[in-house]
Specification:
Layout (H helix, E strand, L loop, with lengths): L13 E3 L11 E3 L4 E3 L3 E16 L2 E3 L2 E3 L1 H4 L7 E5 L2 E2 L3 H11 L4 E7 L2 E7 L2 E2 L6 E2 L2 E17 L4 E4 L13 E2 L3 E11 L8 E19 L2 E6 L10 E4 L8 E7 L7 E10 L9 E5 L2 H7 L10 E4 L2 E10 L2 E9 L7
Parallel strand pairs: 19-24
Antiparallel strand pairs: 1-2, 3-13, 3-19, 4-7, 4-13, 4-15, 4-16, 5-6, 7-8, 7-9, 9-10, 11-12, 13-14, 14-18, 16-17, 17-18, 20-21, 20-23, 21-22, 22-25, 23-24, 24-25
Length: 337
């Protein structure tokens, strides 16, 4: 799986109390919102924000072999974002733009390491297919897995991941396929000092969990299917960072199959004012999780953190020099997105 820096709303209502023996003083009480604890692993598709070049190739024309993209200076890792000023988001967009040019020179806008360059080149007509090509192998979407943090009981709104999703050049990604699929974990690459481990999973395509709607700095958000069976999910209240304390807590993660398990951790630092959403430093203490994963691994982002029976945050990052430790975001930064 590609390394993705991988990778929710309080509802209040008033209630009035009346005595059956006569009218008494009416008081208003804020109803506390409830959240289903997540922990299930979800698969989703993200847009590369254009067509990403993953390889360069030759185009076999009637007069021989040509390499238009390579000769123009396009490299693996570049993202084609426009042709002659027309936005390119998908492979189909690029193919249509090349067909429109009829072999005439076009200006290709290429994004590389956060900067955009204008590259002139002339597409070549492939003698076998008859289509105009520039000699690139491309993709327009990236598949990823992460962990659902919570689902609002009242609205079915969910939050996952706990952090932004960017490509290796730190470009923010957008939701491509709005469906969020149940993901079955089939293997684990254990983390070790200096190397992040990762969960390996398969999308269970017939099991659509939710509809994704947005990716923000604090995670992936959307709405769960109303037909989802929440009977095995625990209901909790959310608590602000101010209520978190150094000491024991638990996380909910799926590291095998599709069923979340509860694992013991310790909160070793609380930093409510951290502007990078690194509000907690946590340490995995559960021997079962340490044996299975070595600690925190990619794909566990979003694993809910519960302390004293309340949802206080989500796992977001692992320490490369110590996979038993990582960061967490305060749930108050995720709720409401």
């Amino acid at each position: 799986m590609r390394k993705l820096k991988f990778f929710i709303a309080a509802l209040f209502s008033a209630v009035a109390a009346l005595s059956c023996f006569g009218m008494c003083t009416v008081s208003a009480k804020a109803e506390t919102a409830s959240y289903y604890i997540g922990g299930m692993t979800a698969g989703f598709m993200l847009s590369a924000g254009g067509t990403e070049v993953i390889g360069l190739s030759e185009v076999a024309a009637e007069d021989g072999l040509h390499r238009p993209a390579e000769d123009a200076g396009i490299c693996v890792g570049d993202t084609i974002v426009a042709v002659d000023g027309i936005r390119i988001k998908t492979i189909s967009d690029l193919n249509r733009a090349l067909e429109r040019c009829g072999g005439k020179e076009v200006i290709v806008s290429v994004r590389r390491k956060g900067e955009t360059a204008e590259v002139p080149l002339s597409p070549v007509k492939d003698k076998k297919s008859g289509n105009y090509k520039i000699g690139v192998l491309i993709r327009d979407t990236l598949a990823g897995i992460g962990t659902v943090t919570y689902i609002d009981k009242a609205s079915y709104r969910f939050g996952a991941l706990g952090h932004a999703v960017c490509d290796e050049n730190r470009n923010a990604l957008e939701v491509s396929d709005p469906k969020v699929y149940l993901c079955s974990i089939i293997g684990v690459s254990k983390g070790a000092r200096g190397r992040a481990g990762e969960l390996r999973g398969l999308f269970v395509n017939e099991n659509v969990l939710a509809k994704a709607e947005s990716v923000k700095d604090t995670g992936l958000y959307g709405t769960f299917e109303k037909g989802y069976d929440f009977s095995r999910c625990e209901l909790v209240e959310a608590a602000p960072i101010a209520e978190a304390t150094i000491g024991k807590a638990v996380i909910y993660s799926t590291v095998d199959g599709v069923c979340p398990q509860k694992y013991e951790i310790g909160i070793v630092k609380v930093d409510a004012g951290n502007k990078e959403n690194k509000n907690f430093v946590i340490k995995v203490t559960d021997e079962r999780l340490l044996d299975e994963t070595g600690g925190i691994v990619q794909g566990m982002s979003g694993s809910p953190i519960v302390q004293n029976g309340k949802l206080i945050g989500a796992v977001t990052h692992v320490f490369l020099n110590d996979p038993t430790r990582g960061y967490g975001i305060g749930i108050e930064h995720m709720i409401g997105n």
